[in-house]
User: Fold these one by one.
Assistant:
Number 1:
Amino acid sequence: MNPGGGGPTTPSAVAGRVLLCLSLAPAAGIAQITLSGTAAASLVVHQVNIGYGVEESSGLLLAGEGGVTFRSRLGLTIRAAGGSLSTSTVGAENRDVGEVGIEASVSPARWLALRASATSRTYSTAIARQRWTIVGVGAEARLDFATSPVRAVLRSGLLPVVTVKGLPEPDVALTAGAGIEYCTGSVIGGLFYGLERYDFPDVGTGRRLEQVSTLTFRFTVQRGGRRGTHQ
Amino acid sequence: MRRLALGLALAVAAPPAVRAQTETADLLRQAQELYERLEIERALPLLRQIVSPSWPHEITKEQRVQAYTYLGASLVLTGVRDSALLYFRGAIERDPFTDLDARRFTPAQLALFRQARRLTFAVAVRPVAAARVDPRTERATFTVVTTHVASVRVELRPAGDQTAVVLFHDVNDGLREVPWDGLLPGGHLAPPGRYALAVVGRSQLVSRSDSMQVYFTVAHEAPPLEDTLPELAPDQLLPERLNASAGRKDLLKGLGVAVGALVASSVAANSDLGRDGRVLAIAVGGMAGIAGVSALLNARHERDLPASVAENARRRTARLAANATIARRNAEKVAQTVLVILPAAGVGP
C-alpha cells in the first residue's frame, strides 16, 4: 500500500528495478563501494489489543531494498514494502499495509553495526487509514561461522520516535530480531525473526497494546567492492 | 583642491624608500627628456648626480643601469669615448641583459656598446616566470645571456641533490632560450620540490668565467589518485582447516541465534497479546540450531578445506586484480600531471 495514498505499491517491481540497476552498475571505479539489492517476503502477524481482547491479523508482506556500502563501514539502505493482512477476528476488518523507509548504518567493528532508521507505514482498511512514522536506533551483531558460509545475526533497538495519527506516543517501543544468513558468491539468503512492540498509554479509553511479529525470507545480490566474509 | 590634499596625504604616508626611489626616477626621467632633446650638456650633470656616491636617495639596480647606459650614450655624443666605454661596461656588468635599441641610438653608440660587450664578460639568467607546463605537449623555457661568445653550460638540479640535468652545453653569444621538458635523468617526471637553475660560462674572448643560479619550485597538479585495496584481514578469509573447536564455536553461535529469537518472542514481546508470534521465532531458532549442530558434526574430524583454500585464493586474486586496475588508472592520472613552476627566493653566483 502506498502510504501517501497514491495507489497500491508493487514491491516486486521495486525489487526488480533495484536488481536491474545493480546488474547494469559498472564494476570498475567503484572498488570501495558495494551495491546491493534485496527482495524479501515476510509472514506478518499483527496483534492489537485496545481493551476488548486481542485482534490478530496476518498475511504476506513483499519488500524491495536497495543499499550502498562505502568501504565496508558506512551503509545506506532504502526500503519499500507492501501487502495485505487478513483477520478471522469477529468484527475486525482486513487491512493493507505499506511502508517506505531509509536506514543508515556504521560498522565500528566487523561484527557490529549501529543503525538508525526512519519508516513511514500506513495501515488501510475500507473505512479508515492510519499512518505511522517510526524512528529507531539500534545495534546488530554479526557472527560468522568458521566452518561454513553461515552468519548468525542478532538485533535489538529502541524506537524513540513513534507518531501515530490519533494516538499518543507509546510508553514502550522497541524492536528485536534474530536470524541466520547463508552466503555464496555475491548472493546472500537469510531467514529472520523480527519483533516490534508498542505499548500506548491509557488516555481514558483503555490501554492500547500493539505488536508486529515477522518471519522474513531475504534474498540479496551484491555487486562491487569487498563483500561479506562468506562469498 | 581635494585631489591635492589626497596627493599630499599619500606622499606623506608613503614609505621613505619609495619616496627616495621616486626622487631618483624623477631625476632620471628629466635627464632622459634632456637627452632626447639633445640637450646633452644639461643631461650629463643630472646623470652624474644620480650615480654619484653622494646621491642621498635610494637607487635601484635597474635605475643605476639605466643611468650608466645614458651616461655612456651621452658621452659618445660628446666624443668622450673612453669614459663612455667605462659606463657601458658598468651597465653590462650589473645587468648582462642590457642592450641598446638600434632604432633609438646612433651607429657610433651601438658600435661602442658592442665593444663594451666584447671587453666585459658576464652570464645571467632571467628569474623563472610562473608557468603551468604539461610535459606531454609543452616545455618550460629559461632565458640566459652571455655578453659575448662563450662556452656555456646550463644545468638544472633539485635542491640538495648533486645529480643535474644538462639543458644546454655549447657555444653561445647573446640571448638564448633554453627549453626543459620537465623530466629528470632516466626520463622521470621532476618530483615536486625546490630546484636550482645554474648557468656557468667561460669567455672565448677574454680569460674570464662567470656563473649565476636562480631557484624555482615545482609542484604537481594531477587528478586525485585512488586508494588501493588493503591486505585482506584474517577475518576476511575463510579458515582453511576444519577443526573441532571451530565446530563448537559455530554451534554456540547457532544456539545463540536460537536463544535470541526465543528471548525476543517471549521476554521482549508483550505477553498480554498472546503467544501466536512465538511460532515464527521457533522457526528461526530451529533453523539456527540446525545450522549450529550441522557445523559441529561437520567439524568432528579435522581436515583441510579445499573449497575454502580455493575461495581464499580467489579473493586474493580478485584483490590483486582490483589493485592492478586501480594502479593502471592511477598511472593514467599521473601521466596527466601538470607541472606548476613558481619562482623561489634565492639567487647566487
Number 2:
Amino acid sequence: MSDAAIEVESLGRTFKVRGGQVVALKNVDMRVGRGEIVGLLGSNGAGKTTLTKILATLLLPSSGTARIFGHDVTADPREVRRMIGVVLGGDRGLYSKLNGRDNLRFFAMLAGVGRRGLAERLDAALDRVGLTEVADRAVETYSKGMRQRLHLAIGMINEPPVMLLDEPTVGLDPVEAERLRRDIAGLRDGGTSVLLTSHYLLDIERLADRVVILADGEAAADVDVAEFAKLAGYTAIVTVRGMGRPPEFESGQSQFTVDDLSESGGLWTLRLRVRDWSVESFGSLGSALGGVDILGVDVSPLRLEDVYSHVAAQLAANGPSKAGEVHP
Amino acid sequence: MTTLDLASARLSWWRTVEAIRHGWREHGVTYPPAAVVFATVPKGVLQIVFFTVLGGVVAGPDQRQYAFVGGLALALTTTNVVTVISVPFADKYFSTFWRIRTGDVPAVVVLYARAVPYLLVAFGLFIVEAAIAAAILGLEGLAVRVLPWLWIFAIMACGYAMLGIAAATLTIAKRADALAPNVLGYLTMLCSGAFLPPGQVRWVDAIGSVLPVRHGLAAVHAAMDGGPWARQALLELTICLVSAVLGLFAVRVQARRATRYGHDDFD
Amino acid sequence: MSDQRIAAPSSPDAGVRESLTPGDRVRSAAWTFLTAARTEQRAMQGNPLVLINGGFLPIALLVISVETRRPTSGRAAEIVVSVMLTALWACTIWTSGGVLRRERTYGTLASCVCGVASPTVILFGKSFGATLYGVGMTLATTLGTVLVLRLPVAVAQPFWIAVGLVIVVVSATTLGALMSCLFLLTRNGLIWSGALMYPVFVLGGLLLPPDVLPVWLRWAPQLLSLHWINEFLSGAIGGGLSFTPLSVAVLLTIVYGVLAWFTYRWSIDKARQRGTLDYA
C-alpha cells in the first residue's frame, strides 16, 4: 500500500457547457500524507469542490490520476469508497423528515458498516458530535450546525482512514464552527488523514498541517502552514498614530515596509509591515520613531487572511506557476 | 488503517432488510396515517365507484361490471402503488442519491428494497378500498369472485411499481414527482383495458400491450369467465420482469450521468 | 425605567400611502394582480404538469367515454363538455391549486405572504395566471381530440360559449386559490389535494349525471359551479340556452372567492403561529 493517503498526479477535469467548455482542473499535483490535515484553499471556481468530488469517486477526471492509499479512484472506486468518508455538508444530503439516528443508520449501512454492534456504534458517533440529545428529532428541526455535525458523523461512521471535508464550517456561528474544528482535530489524533477545503482561514490556521492553494485549476502553492505565513513577507502589522510631522522610513530599510500613511487635521496614521516581529524589531521601531509625537502604537500579528489576500493578489497579477513558487 | 466489520459487506440479507426498514420509516413520514385513512382510501374508493358508474352510464350494465374490475386495477395502481415513486424522488429532493450510488449496496437494490413497504401498504389499502367500493355499488358478489385472482393483481402491482420507479428515475430531472406518476396513470387509464375493452381502438391496444396491467386484467376477466388465463398472466409477469430490468437500467443511466457531470441535483 | 416608547421610524413613503385615493388603491391592486399572474405564467412555461393534466386527461377520458360505445350527436356534445370540465378540474388541482405548493418548493412562500402587497391579491393573481394555462391546454386538447375522433358536435351559440369559458376561468381561479390554502395548513397538501379529484368526478354532476347518484346525494352537484357551467355550455352548444345555470355559476364563483379570501388569511395566520412558512 502506498505511503501517501492521497496522491494526485496531473489531474484534470473539463466540463462541457453550452458554447464551449470550462476547465475546472488542469494538471493538479498534490499529496496528503498519513495522519496529515491538508487545507485546500482557493477562490470560488478554483476547482476545490471538483477535486474533492473526484477523490470521492463522485466525478470522473478528464486526465491524470488520483489515488487513495494506492487505489485508483477511476479503476478501483469500490476500494476507494471503503477508505474514505465524505462530508459535502449543507442543508441537503439528509432525509429531513426522518430523525438523525435513522439517517445515520441508513448511511452507515450504505457505507459498509456491519450489523454487529451497530446500535452502539451509532450511539458513539452521535455522542462524538454532540447530537445524542436530538438524535430522535426530525432533521428538519435541526439548526445548521447540527446538520453539519450529522454530516460529519455520517462521514466518520465507517471509521475511514481518509476524510474529505468540503467547507465544513460554512454558515456556522463562531461557537459551532469552533466545536466542529475540535471534532475535526480529533480525527487527526485518531490517525485519520484529512483533506479540508474551506474559505475560512481560521479553519486552516487551527487545523491544517499544510496548505495547497488552487488557482485557475492548478495547485499554485503547496507549503506548510508555518511557511504559508511567511509567504506574505511579513509577520506583523504595526499601526502608529501621531501628530505633527510623520516619521520617514527609508525604502529598503530591513525591518519595516510602509503599507499606508494617512493624514488629516494634523494627525497621521502609519501602517507598517514588519518582516520578523521581535524584541529587537521593537527596539528598532523606537529608534525610527525618535523625535516624533506618538499618540499610540498597535501591533497586530499576521492573520492568514492577510497572507491569502497577498497570495491571491500575486496569483491574479502573475498567474499560477509551479506549486510552491508563490513568492513573498 | 482502522479496522471495521466490512467482511461481508456487499449484498447481504441484512442490508436489504435495513433498506426495507428505511423505506418503512420513509413511508411513515411521507404518508402519515391520517392522510392515508382520510385521503388515500376515499380517493381509491371513489375512483372505483367513478369508473364503475361511468361504465354503466356510457355503455350499460355489462360495461358496469367490466369497469368495476378495471376500476380495481386503476385504484390499485394509479392511487396506491404509485406512491413508490416517492422513493427515487426523495433522493432527488434531499440530494442523497450520491451516497446511494457510491454506497456498498447496489443502488437498484436500495431503491427496490425501500419500495417494498410502499408496495405492501398499497396492496393492503387496495383490499380495503375494493371492499368498501363493492359495498357502495352493491357488487359484493362480483368482488368475491375476484378474490381468487388477487395474486394476478399483485403481479400487476409489482410491474407498475417497477415501471414507475424506472420512469421516475429517468425523468428525475424534470419534476418527476408529478410528471412520472401522471403520465403512467393516464396511460394506464387509457390503454390498460381497465375501461375500454380490448379490440375497440387499435393504437390503444398496441400501447397497452407493452405496459403493466393490461395482460393481467385480461387474465382476470378470462379467468372469471372460465376461459384460459395462463398465457395472459405469463405475459403480465414478463412485463413485470422487463420493468425491473428497466429500473436497473434507469439507475445506471443516472449514476453514470451524475459521475460524468459531477452533480446529483439533476436540475 | 422610563415609560417612553420609541417612535417607529417613518418610512420614506408613509406620507404617500396616507394620501392614496381609492382609485390609486384599485390600480395598485390591479398592478399586483397582473404582475403576479404574469410571473406565474412565466414560471409555468414549459411546465410538463400543464401538458400532462391539461393535455393527456381529456384525451384519455374522451377516448374511453366515446369508444366504448359511440354516442349520438346530442349526447356527444354533452360528453365533450363534461370531459372538458372534468379534465379542467383535475388540471386545476395541479396548476392553480398548486400555486402555494410551488412557492413552498421554491422557498418563496414567506415572501409572498409577508410582503407589502396584499398576499390575497398575489394568490389570486398567481392562480389566475396558472388557470389560463390550464384552461387553454384543456380546451385545445379537447377540441383536437373531438376532431380526430370525428365526434358529431355542432356549436349553436359561440358567443355564449365564450362567456361560459370566461366564467370557467374565473371559477377555476377561485377554486384553485381555495385549494391552495391546503398547502399552508398541512405538510401533506399534495396527498389531500390529489384526493379532491374523484369526489368532484363522482359528485360533481359532470360525466356522471346527478340522476345516477343516490337520492340523498343529488344535492351535491348543485354546490359546484362547474356543474352549472356544464349545464349552461351544453345548452349553448346544443341550442337550449338558459341563463339560470350561468347565474348560479357566477354566484357560486363569488362565494368561492370570498371563502378563499377568508380561508387564505386564516391559513397564513395559522402557518405563522406554527412557524411552518419556511418549511419546504
